[in-house]
Amino acid sequence: MQELINRLSELEIISSGLEPNAEKRKELLNVLNEYTEAFIEDIDNGKSYFQNDQAINGLEIDGKAHSLKEVLKNFDREVTHRGINPASGGHVGYIPGGGIYTAALADYLADVTNEYSGMYFGSPGAVAIEHEVLNWLKKVFGFPESSIGNLPSGGSIANLIALTAARDHHEVKGTKVERAVIYLSQQVHHCVQKALRIIGLGDVIIRYISLDDGFRLKAEELQQQIEIDKSNDLKPFLVIASAGTTDTGAVDPLNDIADIAQSENLWFHVDAAYGGFFILCAETKHLFQGIERADSLVVDPHKGMFLPYGVGAVLVKNRKAILHSHHYVANYMQDTYLSDTPLNPADVSPELTKHFRALRVWLPLQLHGIDPFIACLDEKLVLTHYFRARLMKEGFEVGPEPDLSVSYFWYPQKEKENEFNKRLMELIHEDGRVFLSSTTINGRFVIRMAILSFRTKKHTIDTAMEMIVGAVKRVMDHGF
Question: How many other CB atoms are found less than 10 A from the CB of residue 11?
């Protein structure tokens, strides 16, 4: 016994390194705070994109202890100064994430307290906060209180949860898969196709419905295609609409699609991961009419609420379907299944181990209220109009008037137009002050703007224009 006690004493001394004392904690926090303050204060002055082809060094795990200052030095060099700077207001390519400071405080609090938010038994308070966030979302989107929701890591898992419920509600399994039909547009986010494959619907029939000039799904064609499929003894069961597409920011005619889904007994799913929170803006609220009629809805707080990457949301009206998909009882968890308690988040998601991500939504809303979020969304809409006006003044062609804050543009050329704009994109990335991305629309290479970062301001767009106009001159000087 004494030998065991002696060994435990030795191990306790070594393992105590994982629990720094108050003085050491203060020292670590001071070092970290010094770095993060410098990062935030300098963020408007630095690049938004870093081209760096050198090998990454200094991030190896060698099993030795290093000082936080040394670690942060390597982190700064090899992480924050490579690729896209997603915290920068100059990130106006792809769909920017957020990163507001108060959400970082929430993550710190969640990590220190280490609350387990998967089961009510484990942390009633954490689960209550998740339900409070979900109840707020139900009010925002007009979903009934009886709806079930979850806060997964993002739109990909949120879509997977909703589409699994749709599959199970319509009992699309076995031989039924090959005759089942899903309707969507070419502009739907690719995570939808991934989700369908993951949940065993890789062989389902997918109908891509044509788009209008604003890249919105044509409801009339949807109705016609459903009738054709039914006459051929196929089984339509799901239609997926977008409320803010990634390429063009388009919002499908949600109310018209809801009418069709209701009359044809289809599950109506809306992917509003990027655009959903623009429902809060007076200018764009009308675009979302009908979203409250969806059977399921996905929206990403780490986009439209400017929170750090890693929190999406899904709402599903059909309680039976979502529980059939995800609820499972295990013997070793029998203590956690109590009667008359709120629904466990783990029972409506693939996740059992669940980060307390609801706190990063709840705390900023508690500290800021909703008005600054709405003002920030309004600002992004106005900045989009401003950017497009500046581009047209400089001779650029732009895509159709956007529904939200994503649009695209290109510099017109009689010959080799795509090659010209590809070279223009390369020079923009080489400059790096503002990050833009590209896509292909109807065979044309175009440059995308996706204005959503809470740090994107008028001066950001002015810098972008200076960079773009300079890049055009450089391309022309080299033979175009």
Answer: 10
What is the helix (H) or strand (E) element at residue 241, kind and residue range? strand 235-242
Q: What share of the chain is helix, strand, coil (3-state, %, to 5)?
A: 50, 15, 35
Scanning 142-218, the segments in alpha helix (DSSP H) are 155-169, 190-198
Rounded to 5 degrees, what are φ and ψ at 306? 65, 30
Reported as a single tens digit per residue, the pLDDT across 306-328 is: 999 999 999 999 998 888 887 76
**Contacts of 407 by beta carbon, 8 Å cutoff, 6+ apart:** 248, 249, 384, 387, 388, 398, 399, 448, 449
Q: Order of strands, edge to edge, in the sheet holding 437-441?
A: 397-398, 406-410, 444-450, 437-441
Pairing state of beta strands 180-184 and 205-208?
A: parallel
Partners of 314 in the β-ladder: 150, 298
Domains and CATH numbers, the chain: 108-368 (3.40.640.10), 371-477 (3.90.1150.10)
Contact in structure between 255 and 290 (CB atoms under 8 Å): yes
Phi-psi region of 84 (alpha: psi -120 to 50; beta: other; left: phi over 0): beta
Q: Closest Cα partner for 346 from 165, 161, 155, 195?
A: 161
Residues in a beta bridge with 397: 410
Phi, psi of 195 (to 5 degrees): -60, -45
Pairing of strands 444-450, 83-84: unpaired
Residue 306 pairs with which residues in a beta bridge?
none
User: What's the pLDDT tens digit per position in 18-56?
Assistant: 999 999 999 999 999 999 999 999 998 889 999 887 889
Spell out a b/e string for 280-299, using b for 16 or more CB atoms within 10 Å of the CB, else e: bbeebeebbbbbbbbbbbbb
